[in-house]
Specification:
The protein has four helices and six strands; from the N terminus they run E-E-E-H-H-E-E-H-H-E. The termini are far apart. The chain has two domains: 34 residues, no CATH class; 94 residues, K homology (KH) domain (GMP Synthetase, Chain A, domain 3, 2-Layer Sandwich). By secondary structure, it is of the alpha+beta class. Helix content is 33%, strand content 36%. Helix 2 crosses helix 3. A hairpin with a 7-residue loop joins strand 2 and strand 3. It has a three-stranded antiparallel beta sheet. Strands 4-5-6 form a three-stranded mixed beta sheet, covered by helices on one side.
Length: 141
């Protein structure tokens, strides 16, 4: 079992307040977040951006393991995750994570590649966390 930690500190109201996120690894260190970084374009981060980064990273690593197990070594796996936040009654919900993958994998055929990519999409721990639609647009070059 592995436990990873991050902390959030918030001061002020929801709309006018500000927060900082810090992770044990130090990658996030008092990183600012606020209403403006979440719903506007102020510099800083937001929960959806961090979830997108986690999903892209998790899926890509899962696919690397799937490919390795099948005897393939990718030259490059480049994934973007686009997380959609939408209104849900009085609040919001994460409704979708759209993965876009561009892959260079020598010697693999399209059918096998699609099978392994689908297994990675369904099997990565972050995908399992979501109660949302997950799509995958995979290009093998």
């Amino acid at each position: 079992m592995s436990v990873r930690k991050a902390r959030a500190v918030w001061q002020g109201t929801g709309k006018d307040g500000t927060g900082q996120l810090t992770s044990d690894s130090g990658v996030l260190s008092s990183t600012p977040y606020s209403f403006k970084t979440r719903f506007e374009n102020e510099k800083g981060t937001n929960p959806e951006e961090l979830i997108a980064a986690a999903h892209a990273g998790c899926f890509t690593m899962a696919l690397a393991f799937q490919l390795q197990g099948a005897g393939f070594t990718p030259t490059e796996l480049a994934t973007e995750a686009a997380v959609t936040l939408e209104k849900d009654g009085p609040g919001f919900k994460i409704a979708k994570s759209a993965l876009t993958l561009r892959a260079q994998v020598p010697g693999i055929d399209r059918t096998r590649f699609d099978e392994l990519a689908k297994a990675a999409k369904e099997g990565c721990p972050v995908s399992k966390l979501f109660n949302a639609e997950i799509t995958l647009d995979a290009t093998l070059g």
